[in-house]
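Good morning,

Attaching, inline, the backbone tokens for the sequence recovery test we're adding to the shared suite. The designed sequence is right after.
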């Protein structure tokens, strides 16, 4: 099994307010990511949060929630909390960002299928020739992931283990879009498909 880890403890600095609760097509953007993760068939989903409103949203779906009191240290804090909370049976860790609003269960199924074919691989989706999220790391890199610092997430490991990276082309329109600024948020209305 693969553990899904939704990292939703950021500060939305460029947005100026808590972006993950902003509605997209009538639903908070992080809820869209939660629903995609559930639809993707993950047996375990861990939700890393900082704000109580986000925790409540995750609990509505029965997700395991973990509070990140060290969110100011960057993405690495959420990454490590997620791995520590994951089941020992987990063969890999699929890391989600909370603002990838048009992510679909199909993308997750494709990532999991690629991982089953390459269980020691790092599975990275590629959208229009651009690296994206979510990224799946094998259990064998657990200890190194737990050493990651700052806001880089697992990027350094992609460089270190180039030969193990599986670049997976994803054809789905808009699945790579995430939202960081008010301008980006304004531009997404009407872009998605239900």
């Amino acid at each position: 099994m693969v553990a899904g880890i939704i990292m939703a403890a950021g500060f939305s600095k460029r947005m100026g307010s808590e972006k993950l609760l902003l509605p997209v097509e009538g639903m908070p953007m992080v809820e869209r990511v939660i629903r995609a993760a559930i639809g993707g068939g993950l047996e375990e989903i861990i939700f890393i949060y900082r704000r109580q409103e986000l925790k409540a949203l995750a609990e509505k779906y029965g997700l395991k929630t973990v509070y990140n009191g060290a969110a100011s240290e960057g993405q690495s804090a959420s990454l490590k909390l997620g791995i520590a909370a994951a089941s020992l049976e987990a063969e890999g860790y699929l890391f989600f960002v909370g603002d990838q609003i048009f992510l679909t269960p199909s993308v997750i199924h494709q990532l999991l299928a690629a991982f089953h074919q390459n269980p020691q691989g790092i599975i990275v989706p590629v959208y229009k020739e651009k690296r994206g999220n979510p990224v799946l790391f094998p259990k064998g890199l657990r200890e190194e992931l737990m050493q990651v610092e700052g806001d880089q997430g697992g990027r350094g490991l992609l460089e270190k283990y180039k030969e193990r990276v599986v670049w997976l082309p994803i054809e789905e329109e808009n699945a790579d879009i995430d939202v960081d600024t008010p301008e980006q948020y304004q531009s997404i209305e009407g872009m998605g498909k239900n």
